[in-house]
Amino acid sequence: MSAITERTRGAAPHPPPHPLSLAGRLPGYRPGEPRTSTTAALSGAAAGIPAHQDGQGVHVGVRARRLLAAGAALAAVTGLAGCTQFDAALGQRQAVVTFRNGTTVAQRLTVRTTCAKTPNVTPQQLPANLNSPYALQQVIYQIDKASDADVARLEQCLAKFPSVAGVTVQDSSDEGS
Is the torsion defined by CA of 118, 124, 130, 132 positive or negative? Predict the structure, then answer.
């Protein structure tokens, strides 16, 4: 028997290294051994401390997985809170009333007060300065909880006033488009 056959008898043949393996490409790297000062310098670990452990013997991989899990949990909670606020904003509906040119503030206030008696219809608060020429350019009613019948009643009420130029019913997804 040849010398080569005797040395390999009983030993399992080594498979070729994986294409992404560091074996043979990183000086001093040996698969299955903890990386110490030679290769630790490449990964930023302090000399003499195995790179897969910190100074207290805790595996860095375990710590990284815990931090990653905590970050993912925090992101999920933040995302759910954001979704709740987003869903609440999506449920908001408004009726925006525009007036003809020359309509006085007193006429606009009359329309606002009269049609606010419709069920589930709430006018927005009055501006602080009603003497401004821009006061009540539009009257906006919140109709979040109003049924289609309530919205129809509001439109009928607004139609009684010749000073009303139109009404636009919109939800929050209509804004900005």
Answer: negative
Count the neighbouring beta carbons within 10 Å of the beta carbon of residue 154. 24
Say which amino acid occupies 120: N
Domain positions in the chain are 91-172
Fold classification of 91-172 (topology level):
Alpha-Beta Plaits (3.30.70)
Q: What is the pLDDT along the chain (177 residues), one digit of tens a residue?
A: 544 544 555 555 556 666 665 555 555 556 565 555 444 444 444 445 455 555 555 555 777 777 777 777 777 777 666 555 544 555 689 999 999 999 999 999 999 999 999 999 999 998 888 887 777 889 999 999 999 999 999 999 999 999 999 999 998 765 554
| Positions of E strands within the chain | 93-99, 122-123, 138-142, 164-171
DSSP state of 143: -
